Amino acid sequence: MARSVNSVASRNRRRKVLKQTKGYFGARGNVWTVAKNAYEKGLTYAYRDRKTKKRNFRALWIQRINAGARLNGMSYSQFMGKIHANKIELNRKVLADLAMNHPKAFEAICKKLK
Q1: CA 9 → CA 35, 38, 45, 101, distances in Å?
Q2: Residue-range domains of the chain with CATH
Q3: Which of 56, 59, 75, 77 has its CA 20 to 30 A from that of 22?
Q4: pTM higher than 0.85, yes or no?
Q5: How many CB atoms lie within 10 A of CB 92?
């Protein structure tokens, strides 16, 4: 009996990966083995960098809050300590937005803390 090979499923699987690698440089976009490796590596980077993105944004928010707090005469650690002590329920994302785009509102918060 002849060996049964499901070429339809194999071709569809390859086509799916090659569609995902469209636009990659050189052979990464059209040679099956190279494209498969590039695609899997890309998925690994995507998973890792979804975590890194959160880390980077938190660091950015902290820098912006620190800059705003220093303009109003206190350090970031003092500012956050007083925010928690006064039970002000604003997260870093909102505080950073206020410091950057609404300096008057941020200054009002700083005055309340002092």
Answers
A1: 18, 21, 27, 54
A2: 9-113 (1.10.1900.20)
A3: 56
A4: no
A5: 17
